[in-house]
Amino acid sequence: MKIALIILLISCTVLCADVRPATGQIYYIPFHVETYEAITQANIKQKAFYKFEVNDRDKLSALLQLLAGVGEASSFGDNRVRLLVVSDKKQIFVDAEGNVFDGKKTHRLNHGNFDKLKTLLSELVKTP
Question: Is the pTM of this model over 0.90?
Fold first, then answer.
């Protein structure tokens, strides 16, 4: 009986585990900033104004949901990268115009989601 209870508790723990990413790394240059040097997928980690880790699952989930939104196909500005989110070994890039590249496809954030993204990033930058 005790063994059955232990197995039940372990399986419940595994099945009920939170599947959202636990942490994410953010490399960010505010979208309105114009730089003299091209900011690309290759150099955003070195050139980012803000580099930080997000440990709040809710905020990271909200950020990833905004970036995953389905929008119209668009072309990505390879020389105007402003955001890199690294989570669960995935890399998601956003250019200065709100075009999102997830490594496979590119889509444009609508104005509302782009504004929400800017607001969320502002809050995350202010958080110690």
Answer: no
